[in-house]
Amino acid sequence: MNETPAEARVGRWDIFELALPGPEGGNPFTDVEFFADFRFRNRLTRVRGFYDGDGVYKVRCMPDAEGEWTYVTHSSRPELDGHTGAFGCVPAGANVHGPVRVHNRFHFQYADGAPYLPFGTTCYAWNHQGAALEAETLRSVAASPFNKMRMCVFPKHYDFNRNEPEFHPFEGSLADGWDFTRPRPDFFRHLERCVDGLRGLGVQADLILFHPYDRWGYKDLPRATEDLYLRYVVARLAAYRNIWWSMANEFDLMRSKSLADWDRYFQTVQEEDPYHHLSSIHNCRDVYPHGRHWVSHVSMQSSELHRVAEWRTAYRKPVVVDECCYEGNIHRGWGNITGEEMVHRIWHGVTQGGYVGHGETYLHPEDVLWWAKGGVLHGTSPARIGFLLGLLRGAPHGIEPLATRSGVTCTAREGEYYLMYFGVHRPAYWLLTLPEDREFTVDVIDTWKMTVDRLAGRYTGSCRVDLPGMSHLALRVMGLAGAQEPAAARG
């Protein structure tokens, strides 16, 4: 046995990495099996290692409990077999809450129990644009309200995104052909740096493993390569606490793949990921059967936000509408809605119990559109989305939609908190039916101007609330502290 002293100290949900020298001959990606068993007390976690080039093999662990962890390596090659050691897991750093999990069926929270509300954005190929633009994108994310980023592993070939990426995932070239048995470590190191940049901002990396927009041959890999690729990317990235797995963007446009293929990808990722990160799949028109047990949450492309309640009922899982059209002005219908319409759609989906993502596609003289390449946000919706996120952070965690009338949507904790959204409707007053044994405050919210005006007085029982008669208003009704828990209310 080769022993390593217990000198390392790793924060809870950070990354312990073991690097060992090993064989370079043959094909290290396919010829060498390399694992490590990490043990904490009576719990053992087996983790696949990976070849990182230049004769170096690595294995990573994301410790989730404080105390001493030990490890032993296993390999088909003696140079990598039987290495032992230990490291100490210390308390998590500031603002580190661990990976995100599903909570109470329809919601999310971090591993330490802190609430998580996914307010994401889409930036498909930001990690293929070079250091300067990638750094600018991270600065923009840091200044935005977004806490999740949809991004692709593979480069993308589509409108406003025709540039050649700096790195490719396999050895070879488009002209000479690719060696799909040899991933390029520099490509994946760069991907890790991008994921790590988001991790430092507390942003989830919703990592898209396959997509149809391709000129390099990555959408139609041989089956053996698909399996090699999935094992390799999971081995490298599963120890990052901010990873979500998305099997595909618009899976149904990849006609060479069957439903059984997508099932296999889910199963492979599930088997290889020792930390069981969230996993889903995104559609264009045809919807994947999200009820399957390896799908943690619904990832939907749709502008039919009124169907959120239907999807919740059908799948009994959190519903994330990752694409509801984009704020912008390009020639495609999905990419030229106004900021006002984007904010409306997000409010409409959220008050029905879903989570709705942002996207931006404003024309740029150098084709630097946020949705494709990142850079700078130009739209009017992000500030308003941040306003909504702030309101929800002040609400009880896990509020649920209520049946309402006249096109008004409402999410609530009955008897305690109600957030109603009127959308395009603009009544001059609204009738509330509240419990009679508790008093409530009522706030009128302008979702565009981002104002909250508290009405005078206290409200209880059947009461009338006068409104300004404007569209896109919301009402927040909150019970005063110290009152008894009342019966159900409807707005």
Architecture overview:
α4 runs parallel beside α5 and α7 runs parallel beside α9. The strands form nine sheets. A six-stranded antiparallel beta sheet has the order 24-25-26-31-28-29, with helices on one face. It has a five-stranded mixed beta sheet with strand order 1-8-7-3-4, with no helix packed on it. The longest helix is centred in the middle third of the chain and has 16 residues. Helices cover 20% and strands 31% of the residues. The chain folds into three domains: 89 residues, Immunoglobulin-like (Sandwich), CATH 2.60.40; 294 residues, TIM Barrel; 80 residues, Immunoglobulin-like. β12, α2 and β13 form a beta-alpha-beta unit. The chain is of the alpha/beta class. It contains nine helices and 31 strands.
Topology of helices and strands:
Layout (H helix, E strand, L loop, with lengths): L1 E10 L4 E6 L6 H4 L2 E7 L2 E6 L1 E2 L4 E6 L5 E9 L7 E8 L9 E4 L3 E4 L4 E2 L3 E3 L8 H12 L5 E5 L17 E4 L3 E7 L1 H16 L3 E7 L12 H15 L5 E6 L10 H14 L6 E2 L17 E4 L6 H8 L3 E5 L3 E2 L10 H12 L4 E2 L3 E2 L8 H4 L7 H13 L6 E3 L6 E5 L3 E5 L7 E5 L6 E7 L4 E4 L7 E5 L6 E7 L12
Parallel strand pairs: 1-8, 12-13, 13-16, 16-17, 17-18, 19-20, 20-22, 21-23
Antiparallel strand pairs: 2-6, 3-4, 3-7, 5-6, 7-8, 9-10, 10-11, 14-15, 24-25, 25-26, 26-31, 27-30, 28-29, 28-31
Helix pairs in contact: 4-5, 7-9
